[in-house]
Amino acid sequence: AYSEEVILVVEDIDSLFGFLWSTSFAARPIFGDRVEEFERELRAELLALNSNGRFEELDAFGLVIGSPPRK
């Protein structure tokens, strides 16, 4: 087995929104007529955290290789 934590990508805010909108849990239709308000508020909060608008994503990867037991 192998696992490692790595910084996967450095994303800008537009990329983060692209990811959110592509998911089932945060697709644009879920927000209804408040989607623009949500995007505006989240963008402001993210820029307050990091004024250059770029964020690192820390991910963990794992790999297990195996085969069925021989008979």
Sequence stretches where pLDDT stays below 50 over 5 or more residues: none
| Count of DSSP-assigned helices | 2
Helix content: 25-40%
How many beta strands in the DSSP annotation? 2
**Strand order, largest beta sheet:** 1-2
* Shape call: elongated
User: What order do the helices and strands follow?
Assistant: EHHE
Strand content: 25-35%
State the separation between the terminal residues, measured CA to CA: 23 Å
- Rounded to an integer, what's the Rg over CA atoms? 18 Å
Instruction: Report mean pLDDT, rounded to a whole number.
Output: 86
- Largest sheet data: 2 strands, antiparallel
Oligomeric state of this protein: single chain
- Overall structural class, as computed from helix and strand content, comes to alpha+beta
